[in-house]
């Protein structure tokens, strides 16, 4: 089954959005297999966003991400990566669907509340980076109420 790494950024934690963001994924039908608060520091955050290291906004992005604890989670279920991105909304909150997390709670790209893996391959890399200890395997009692087969 597909897994994606979703993270509440420091602004989302400060603004009390952790519960809402978890709730949206939980209610959608995804299964939580990893969850933790972390203050990982610059080196770890630079690894997470390594693909963006040449961008002009990179230093600002790292200091934003390093400004407080984040809450990282792994959600498992059908089309988790792509559907997760739809649930977060466009990178620029002003272009996000109002029903999405960013479209509901953010106004600026540099304070956009949450992160979501962009491909299945990157999701697996991010999960290894943030959860080197591994994930939790469990059978959801709701499975047959979420999936037809
Ligand atoms: P993530 O889920 O956080 O990875 O966002 P994304 O995949 O929607 O966008 P991307 O990976 O391209 O950029 C990572 C993060 O860098 C964004 O979520 C923004 O917080 C920030 N960012 C991206 N583009 C800009 C920009 O043009 N200006 C500023 N200030 N920040 C940006
Ligand atoms: Mg990204």
From TrEMBL:
The keyword Cell inner membrane does not apply. ATP binds at residues 9, 57, 85, 91, 102, 112. This is Nucleoside diphosphate kinase. GO terms for molecular function: nucleoside diphosphate kinase activity. It comes from Filobasidium floriforme. It is an enzyme of class 2 (transferase). GO terms for biological process: CTP biosynthetic process; GTP biosynthetic process; UTP biosynthetic process. NCBIfam families: PRK00668.1. It holds the Pfam family NDK. Its cofactor is Mg(2+). PROSITE patterns: NDPK_LIKE. InterPro entries: NDK-like_dom (IPR034907), NDK-like_dom_sf (IPR036850), Nucleoside_diP_kinase (IPR001564). Belongs to the NDK family.
